[in-house]
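Components:
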Amino acid sequence: MRSDPRKALVVLSGGQDSTTCLYWALDRFGGTAVSAITFDYGQRHRIELDCARRVAERAGIPHACLPIDTFRALGGDALTDDAVAVRDETDADSGLPNTFVPGRNLVFLTFAAAWAWPRGIGNLVTGVAQTDYSGYPDCRESTLASLEQTLRLGMESDVVVHAPLMHLSKKDTVLLAERLGALDAMALTHTCYNGERPPCGHCPACRLRAKGFREAGIADPLCADA
Amino acid sequence: MRSDPRKALVVLSGGQDSTTCLYWALDRFGGTAVSAITFDYGQRHRIELDCARRVAERAGIPHACLPIDTFRALGGDALTDDAVAVRDETDADSGLPNTFVPGRNLVFLTFAAAWAWPRGIGNLVTGVAQTDYSGYPDCRESTLASLEQTLRLGMESDVVVHAPLMHLSKKDTVLLAERLGALDAMALTHTCYNGERPPCGHCPACRLRAKGFREAGIADPLCADA
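Structure:
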């Protein structure tokens, strides 16, 4: 099925990166062509879902939230399992951090493509980045290129997967958000792995976010809010 | 993470093809190396889940059932949506039958890989086939090859995806089941799209199954059961 190359669907987590991507999509495809999808996958911090909803509302775009109850049933990772603490160090066996949910971004993008397919949406936009990435192999450019090909074959579509932050440092992502007029929306986003608001400032996600704003020489509106 | 090339996980739907694949895996990897996974994705016919459980029990292998509530939320297809009747003809827009759930097998195999990953299972086995396939692009060999590559990259694994029925006709699948000693288990399987038991005999799935047994010159134990 041919899809419309002018329409785009943003995978919106409610975090800094996907919010920046939403504004990137608005800039590239125009306000009426963009919609967003959020996955309720049992994340520990339900606040992320609220953040995504508020970011989409502020941008004035259609927003869908789809449930995925499978990750919780898979169990054992720090992002969905209350019994597992977020650790900084990587797992000795796999070399990956214990926040790694195997296949998470593959599933998100596959479901986003399944949502886009009957609606003729030809572009998917994701906030993953291999610069500064936390050791997640499903955030790499090679993985996304392979996934794009898999989605095209598996759905007989010509969908394009965009990852505008792929090669940007956190600093450059902050500068991009400023250029796109997305900074104000940053006050609505959530980053902290520990689910705190104001952010804990200590977890890997908080530290990475703070480093990006500091290096960009811009105050984080989320912390100004606090 | 290196996985064990001697261990295999079969995606078991409770139907004829995946049951044949389970016996293929037992033959190839041995009884203690095989486990099975079934997805409860809101299929109209809950009987499939019972069939899968009984097939796995009979084979004496560990069996997990994982929920996926997302397809129902995506909506609009005949395999999960009670409001949509199974039609024989294809959709004019997409050229695909209305039983097509975009991305279904991509999601099943990705979650199977996510289940296999922490358990070090190096092989995934699926019953999809491009011969006799119902127009589903996610059952093709090119799609599975691309998905295998995506899973390897996205999970940093060396997982292998097997589709032993890929190039077999339904007749050859029945003959394979006979050779593997899987025929008795066929009485436990479910095929009918209309969820009837004994099978309706009229839906595309029933007709295809009957044709396979007829051409193989073997009585279908499911119908003998009736």
